[in-house]
Amino acid sequence: MNLLRNEKKYGEEDPPEQVPFHVSHAIIYGGSIIVPDERSSSHIYAHGCYGCFLNERVERINHRLLPEVQEGDEIVKRLKDAEGTWKDRRPIHERLYLSPEEAAFLSIDVNVLIVSENKKELSLDELWLRLKDLGGPSFLKRYVLYRYLRNNGWCVRSGLPYGCEYLIYQGSPISHHAAAGVKMETQMDGHTLIGFNRELTNMKKALIIVTPLVPEGLDTSNYKSADSVELSMSTSVTMFVERKMNDIKKKEIEEFKRNLKRKADE
């Protein structure tokens, strides 16, 4: 995974640390995991980009892209008016929605999230069973994969737009483009592999294929069962990774030639 491309967005600053440091509260309501407090929602999202806001609105105007336009020009005024109108459509109270994997990671691994249901605080074992119900049959595998990626410093977001489990970022989606799409498969046929590889290559992303290895007969009623699951991981060498390898080889050859010339001059 050292060959993955980390492309930073123009004009964006690096985010703060990837882990929230304040303890927050969430509730399970209607099958969703919600952080009802607006300040806690902002804190969790700002430190690691966990969860998502419904009806989320993002500022699309980057004045650094308009260097020839002065602040008092009419075009800037129209842009700011449009930006204000767009912001006014945001809901008054922002609520952060977490996936079962995100809630498990923040509660079990980071210990910064307390989850309640029907006004009753859930223990870790109770939360685990509830998240298994919400996450479905593949929850254990997805959680183990999510935890592995987070613990290795990646910012992890949903990969649904690309047909995979996760997209990973070196930084955050605000400051960087995704480096790779992570697909969880026990068996992938050639046509599917080529399709995923081509799609992600066109978007300058690598394809990482992960196979979770769950021991037969494993008791998954306890959150500690995740420690028994292993991951087999392989990275598809996409076109931009090949170019990266060619660049490395080219630099090595040039360095070798310079060393030969230096020795000849001596």
Report on the structure:
The chain has 266 residues and is of the alpha+beta class. It has two domains: 22-55 and 75-136, MutS, DNA mismatch repair protein, domain I; 153-265, Trna Endonuclease, Chain: A, domain 1. It has seven helices and eleven strands. The chain has helices spanning 38-46, 74-88, 100-109, 124-135, 139-151, 190-202, 239-265; strands at residues 24-29, 32-35, 52-53, 96-98, 113-117, 120-121, 155-158, 166-169, 180-184, 206-213, 230-236. Strands 3-4-2-1-5-6 form a six-stranded mixed β-sheet, covered by helices on one side. Strands 7-8-9-10-11 form a five-stranded mixed β-sheet. Strand 1 (24-29) and strand 2 form a beta hairpin. Helix 3 packs across helix 5. The two termini are 40 Å apart. Mean pLDDT is 79; it is low at 88-92 and 238-243.
Features:
single chain; 266 residues; alpha+beta; MutS, DNA mismatch repair protein, domain I; Trna Endonuclease, Chain: A, domain 1; six-stranded mixed sheet; five-stranded mixed sheet; 7 helices; 37% helix; 19% strand; tRNA_intron_Endo_cat-like_sf
In helices, the fraction of residues equals: 25-40%
Report the total helices. Answer: 7
Instruction: Provide the spatial order of strands within the biggest beta sheet.
Output: 3-4-2-1-5-6
Order of helices and strands: EEHEHEHEEHHEEEHEEH
Number of beta-strand segments: 11
> Cα distance, first to last residue?
40 Å
Largest sheet: 6 strands, mixed
Shape: globular
Low-pLDDT sequence parts: 88-92, 238-243
Question: Would you tell me the overall average pLDDT?
Answer: 79
SS strand fraction: 15-25%
Going by CATH, the architecture of the largest domain would be 3-Layer(aba) Sandwich
Which structural category fits the helices and strands? Answer: alpha+beta
Just give the CATH class of the largest domain: Alpha Beta
Number of domains: 2
| CATH T-level fold name of the largest domain | Trna Endonuclease, Chain: A, domain 1
- Report the radius of gyration as a whole number of Å: 23 Å
Catalytic activity: pretRNA = a 3'-half-tRNA molecule with a 5'-OH end + a 5'-half-tRNA molecule with a 2',3'-cyclic phosphate end + an intron with a 2',3'-cyclic phosphate and a 5'-hydroxyl terminus
Organism: Haemonchus contortus (Barber pole worm)
GO biological process, one term: tRNA-type intron splice site recognition and cleavage
GO molecular function: nucleic acid binding; tRNA-intron lyase activity
